[in-house]
Amino acid sequence: MKNRNTLKRRNFLKLSLTAAFGGMAGKLVGNNWMQTAGPVAQGIANKVGTFPRSKLGYSQREVSVIIGAGDMSSNLVEAGVQCGMNYWHKANRWMNFGAPDIILKNREAHYCQVTVDRVGSSHYSGRFDEDEHVRYVKEAVKKTGLGYFDDMQLHFGYHNTEEVKQNKAFVRAFERLKKQGLVKHLCLSQHSYAGSSRVENGQSDAKVLKAIVDDGLYEHAQFMYSYPGDPEMDEFIAYAKKKNFGTIAMKTARGIGRMNRDSDFMDKLPQGTSPYNAMTRWLTTETSLTAAVIRVRNMEEFEETYSGAGKKLRDQDLQAMAIMSAEADRTACRMCGKCQPGCPQQIPIADILRFERYAMDDNDWNKARKLYASLPTKGNVCVGCENCVSACPLELNIPGKVSRVHAMLG
Ligand code: SF4
Ligand code: SF4
After folding, report:
1. Helices 299-306 and 2-21, packing angle to 10 deg
2. Which residue, by CA, sits nearest to atom 5 of ligand 1?
3. Do 58 and 185 form a contact (C-beta atoms < 8 A)?
């Protein structure tokens, strides 16, 4: 019954927004959207309210607890700005059309991050190349029109702690760009490479991140983190906080897309709660994180999700979180990589289950299929030995999952 009420509310919201956007979709591109989408974005922002801020890393810059991303649609960017969103991850995605006017007009009020990949094929086999990183950032500065980036982020991070110590090409590129006033702070997004067959001596994200904090060159990091927390990453977050190192969670909505489509599951949640909203409350009030990236795809998700930012968990949210955590622990990978080292077939299990999330939770099937096609070893070579299952803290049915994902995406 309560789910039917939620669906009714959602359908109403969807219809209202569709009507409001009717006929203008073609104009909502490039940087001319301010004049057209303004009232709708403002209306949603009024319902959501202002995001609290927290202090990021050694610079103690005040950033919104929910950060934005360069791949958000322009109406979502505008609504975000109205709510006080002031940090933009992957701002180099604005290279095609230029940064949104709402940011360019008030450039100093925003922190914009350029995300830089290794050069060459991928984050596994790609290389650091000081000159190429410098060239890319300069091109991004020019094409976005931003004038400079506040943060330069190494995408996908280091393979192991030895690489952090030995390979300083990315840091040197940053120093050169900093001298020219084109970047200000250094940061990274870190994945786990523990047990990966595609890198030598790959280590977990927690291990590499601790080395990054101790190295002292980077100001903050993004990493995968989701409810109900993870003991290893919780320890790292506490350590980072003591050292004034900023922490930003990504890939936060583990399994929630699937939950939202499952009406039987949604019927189990207490009235007035929703998975996105409860998770946002938890991330922004119950953890020691500096901020979080929580992906939303439309205004309806914006309102439902972000209206939880900075708000305490109510009793009913706690109940919802317990139900969601049990469901996610039964169905959705945490991407900790613990299953990886024992796989005799060297199947990239955590990658495969990340692509499953892109498809099943984000509904981004093209991206999931493309990434799956790029894997050198796929789920179809699983021999069912179950080494992975005994290593997995959630005891997920990994052989069943990798073969299902192969059927879906292969
Ligand atoms: S069951 Fe399959 S995925 Fe798991 S360790 Fe064995 S071969 Fe690898
Ligand atoms: S399948 Fe289990 S062990 Fe492997 S990455 Fe996911 S949660 Fe970790």
Report:
1. 130
2. 343
3. no
Is the C-alpha dihedral spanning 354, 362, 283, 242 positive or negative?
positive
CA of 194 to the centre of ligand 2 (A): 11
Cα atoms found within 13 Å of the Cα of residue 6, Cβ hemisphere only:
23
Q: Compute the distance from residue 370 Cα to the ligand 2 centre, in Å.
A: 22
Instruction: Give the ligand 2 atom nearest the CA of 334.
Output: 7
Q: Work out the burial of residue 336: count CB atoms within 10 Å of its CB; fewer than 13 is exposed, 13-18 middle, 19 or more buried.
A: buried
- Mean pLDDT confidence for 255-276: 95
Tens-place pLDDT, residues 351-379:
999 999 999 998 899 999 999 999 989 99
Pick from 338, 353, 337, 348: nearest CA to 400: 353
The CATH number that domain 2-331 falls under is: 3.20.20.100
The HSE-up count of residue 162 (CA atoms within 13 Å, CB side) is 6
Within 6 Å (CB) of ligand 2, which residues are found?
A: 333-339, 349-350, 353, 391-392, 394, 396, 398
Task: Compute the distance from residue 337 Cα to the ligand 2 centre, in Å.
Answer: 5
Under 8 Å between Cβ of 391 and 339: yes
The number of the ligand nearest the C-alpha atom of 387 reads 1
- Atom 8 in ligand 1: residue holding the nearest Cα: 343
Model pLDDT, residue 272: 95
Bridging pattern class, strands 291-292 and 151-154: unpaired
| Ligand 1 pocket at CB < 6 A | 342-345, 347, 349, 382-388, 398-399, 402
Closest C-alpha residue for ligand 2 atom 1: 333
Residue 370 to residue 375: CA distance in whole angstroms: 9
Range(s) of the chain covered by CATH 3.20.20.100: 2-331
Distance 65 CA to ligand 1 centre (A): 38
CA gap 296, 319 in Å, rounded: 23
| Chain segment 306-361, per-residue pLDDT in tens | 999 999 999 999 999 999 999 999 999 988 888 988 899 999 999 999 999 999 99
Mean pLDDT of the chain: 90
Tokens of 198: 């595609």
Which stretches does DSSP call E strand in 236-317? 246-250, 291-292
**Ligand with an atom nearest the CA of residue 356:** 2
